[in-house]
Automatic annotation (TrEMBL):
Alphabetical list of Pfam families matching this protein: JmjC (PF02373)
Name of the featured protein: JmjN domain-containing protein
Origin superkingdom: Eukaryota
PROSITE patterns named in the record: JMJN
Organism from which the protein derives: Adineta ricciae
UniProt domain JmjN: residue ranges: 5-46
Amino acid sequence: MSTYVPTIEINKKQLKNLIYFIGKHEDLLAKYGAIKIKLNENWKLNLKKKVDIFSTNSVNKQLVKIPSKKFIYPVEEINSIEKPFQEKFCIQNENDFLNLLNSSKYQQLNISYIMDESFFLQKTSIDHFSVYHSIYESTLKFFQKDIQKQFHPYIRRTHKSPSIFPLNCAQQFFFTLDYHRQGENHHWYIIPSHQRCILQDLLSKQNQSNCLEHQQIFLHPLFFYENNIQYYRINQQENEFVILSSGTFYQSFTEN
């Protein structure tokens, strides 16, 4: 069985001191691997009026259902010559998505990444929150600029339904902040870092151990259940933040 990660409301003062706020909840982050943050005031975010995201193309990859790999869906490149036809599905909840996984041999990811881009303005303001303010307030400010540049924002875009983000790992020694700008609900599966050894051993038996941190597989929730791996869920809606603890494994999909 799994539960949802804690949802914490944050006020204007706490949001301005986000790094301190996260530090106060280190125990929750260590246990659950993530927390969800809701704004409890009409707090203004320092967002750009327009971001050019419509010219990006979906990554040319898909999930593949292989009978010999129970509840494990490898990610492979799509053959541009024999590109499989993808039906339209109505995904309104987790059951719809899992039924799709069970019934489809192939399922395109329908996602793209825009590196070095953000919905937030770099210029910070006293009355508006920007993710860049948190970067400047973190321990990164003590590093040289060439090291700071290695940690940059990016936009994850969905193209069709469902959009699927394969298994990935939050960077070691740093937390990850995810903001849901707009669109339908975003469903996450969170595997805390203290489950890493168990997960790695199980995937090694399936010759999939190299896929843990490279977005090369998607794991059905029944894989966690049958192997007694503790995992948690998040249902992220518009204007909500998700904070991932360092070393947390995560994968997700969106509704339509």
